[in-house]
Amino acid sequence: MIDLNTVPSLPGVYLFKDSKGKVLYVGKAKNLRNRLKSYFQSDDLDPRKSKMVKLIKDFSYIVTSNEFEALVLEANLIKQHKPSFNVLLRDDKSYPYLRITVVEEWPKIDVVRKPKKDGNLYFGPYVPAQSMWEALSFIRRNFPIRTCKYRLNKPIRPCVQYQMKRCPAPCAGFISREDYMKGVNEVVLFLKGQKTELLNILYEKMQKLSHELKFEAAAKIRDQIRRLEKIFTQQRVVSQTLDDMDVIGVYIEDSKISVNTLFVRNGLLVGSNDWTVKKAFYESEGELIHAVIEALYSKEALIPPPIIVLENLPESLTEIKEWLKEKRGDFVELKTPSLEEEKALLDMALNNAKIHLQSKISPLETSLKELKQRLNLSEIPSKIGAFDVSTLFGSYSVGSFVYWQDGFFDKNLYRHLRIKEIQGIDDYSAMKEIVHRVVKKFNAELPEPDLILIDGGLGHLNAAIKVINELKEKLNVFAIAKDPDRLIFPDGRELVLEDKKPSSLLLKKIRNEAHRFAISYHKKLRKKATFESLLEKIQGIGKKRRLTLLKHFGSVSKIKAATVEEIASLQGFNLRLAGKVIEELNKIS
Question: Do residues 412 and 428 make contact, with C-beta atoms less than 8 angstroms apart?
């Protein structure tokens, strides 16, 4: 039982847990007690919140000194537990950066996945990484900067890169540091996209070499200028005036969230990335934006830029800015677009987020979306349970429950049930019994379905709904009747399922599986009973010996096919009794 009386009215972080102790959700609050009361003492819960609250069986909390500490702790706990109801940007990619080690005497250029606050220059992130490798390849061919990891505290023999004319060999003392740093500066200008300044430097260098009659060296600079002009025209320039910024577009459709981030550096669009989040919990758009920022920049491989552009600002703006400042080591501005260029970039991010989400929609998701609309459900049903009852003139009455989830039947969640309380033919009472026995296990032994199907007519449906109401559960329940196949709503309306629509075929498939599972159990009980009744007619074969034969052979036909010696070898049998078993079975059958 959730007890809120001991929760303090202080800032902190709370963790909701399921029956197995798994963390479902991590949240933060200015006032822990008030925040938790909003979950457990409110009758007006939206579907997302209601879905999560049903799963909560325990909670814990950690008090902090202020909201900022709560935010930092929340981000760390989300990263640690990866709760299913938090916004998680599920990609295992790291973000590649190009680094120029300017803190070294002879700087080098290399690729890193986790930038640090170490005084070096970092350029990126490059997403996809292919653009970064293309830039690095161009730099190696056109700029005199080393790429090796050798320590240059004493002269060494130059490597093959010098022979290929891709490195000026500072390791061997073949270039002065002043000239080497000029080359490093050219690489920095190239990576910053400062086209005019870089080309002016190269033009001056080419003219100087030409005046000095060093025509071969001047021709090399000329060729370098031509290659640079070509690659600059290919770069995606989004602005000549904008600073470094990330532009985050968030698109929501049904219960799915799509996020697109554009990485703009020095006016160049250096990368873009997409994520889809399926079932995250959030109470407002501001809370969702907060969660997206927190999830995105919790990654060690992503440095927040000085500006982040969003359609709407997040909740707890002061705290999230302070957190980003700590991550970056400098001030970070969160803003809605004010310039036309910023608006255009945000529109691009929002459009990409929408396109990415729609491109991920499978035929199954289309069917479920159609099902949501036809049944007027509040959310897309990704989990569906189905009940059926099977009997033969009131004998061996059984029930079945099958579970379908995200496109597959989960047989670990199937349940066979023998009808215990009802004698004779009474399908409605039998349905009540099996529904009661299964539904009371929801959120404890079984995950609660988004939709329940009853194999039968309106009477079966009403029987099931009565039990569910008695258990005070709020479930979407419908029946499927035959001849013709049709879905029956709780108010008696009917929806014909003979139209071959994907959603109709899915419903019938699940109903048929529940029927198959019930029939298979019914046949199994009848077969076992028939088998035992035949053995009971043989004198000298009691319950213990019947079980021995049942476990070893499994069927009457296999016992009849066995030799006297095989039966006699079983515990409790001898040759005389074994012969009698075979003889009597042949007489009976």
Answer: no
Q: How far is CA 407 from the centre of its chain?
A: 16
Distance in Å from the first CA to the final CA of the chain:
59
* Neighbour count for residue 583 (Cβ, 10 Å): 12
Give pLDDT tens digits for 300-310: 768 899 999 99
**φ and ψ at residue 83, rounded to 5 degrees:** -65, 145
Place of tokens 């700087």: 107
| Cα dihedral 515, 520, 523, 529 in deg (nearest 10) | -130
- % of the chain beyond a pLDDT of 90: 29
Residue 146 DSSP code: B
Cα dihedral 88, 91, 94, 95 sign:
negative
β-pairing, 477-481 vs 451-455, is: parallel
Number of helices followed by number of strands (H, E) in the chain:
19, 19
The helix/strand/coil state of 26 is strand
Burial of 561 (0-12, 13-18, 19+ CB in 10 A): exposed
Q: Of 324, 335, 451, which Cα lies nearest the Cα of 387?
A: 451
- Nearest-CA neighbor of 148 among 130, 171, 127, 164? 171
What pairing do the DSSP bridges indicate for beta strands 333-335 and 307-310? parallel
The Cα 339–Cα 343 span in angstroms is 6
Give the chain's mean pLDDT: 84
- pLDDT tens sequence across 391-404: 654 456 788 899 99
The pLDDT confidence band at residue 1, using thresholds 50, 70 and 90, is low
Give the C-alpha separation, 271 to 267, whole Å.
12
Helix (H) or strand (E) holding 392: strand 383-392
In the β-sheet with 245-253, what is the strand arrangement from edge to edge? Answer: 268-277, 256-265, 245-253, 307-310, 333-335
Report which residue type is found at 342. Answer: E
Measure the CA–CA gap between 192 and 123, rounded to whole angstroms. 8
Which residues in 338-374 are b (16+ Cβ under 10 Å) and which e? eeebbeebbebbbebbbebbeeeeeeebebbbbbbee
Closest alpha carbon to 589 in 531, 509, 539: 531
What are the strands of the beta sheet with 23-29, ordered from one edge? 23-29, 12-17, 58-63
- Look up residue 151 and give its two tokens: 């320590």
Nearest to 293 by CA among 319, 331, 271: 319
pTM of the model: 0.68
What distances in angstroms separate CA 491 from CA 285, 477, 487, 494, one per listed residue? 35, 11, 12, 9
- CA 111 vs CA 115, 262, 269: distances in Å: 10, 21, 19
CA 583 to chain centre: 63
Note the pLDDT of residue 394.
Answer: 46
CB count within 10 Å of CB 101 equals 19
- pLDDT tens sequence across 404-413: 998 899 999 9
Q: Residue 278 CA to chain centroid, in angstroms? A: 6
Whole-angstrom distance, CA of residue 465 vs CA of residue 443:
18
Give CA 544 to chain center in angstroms: 52
In one letter, which amino acid is 345?
Answer: L
Mean per-residue pLDDT for 46-55? 79
- Tell me the C-alpha distance between 10 and 131, whole Å: 48
- Return the closest-CA partner of residue 248 out of 233, 237, 263: 263
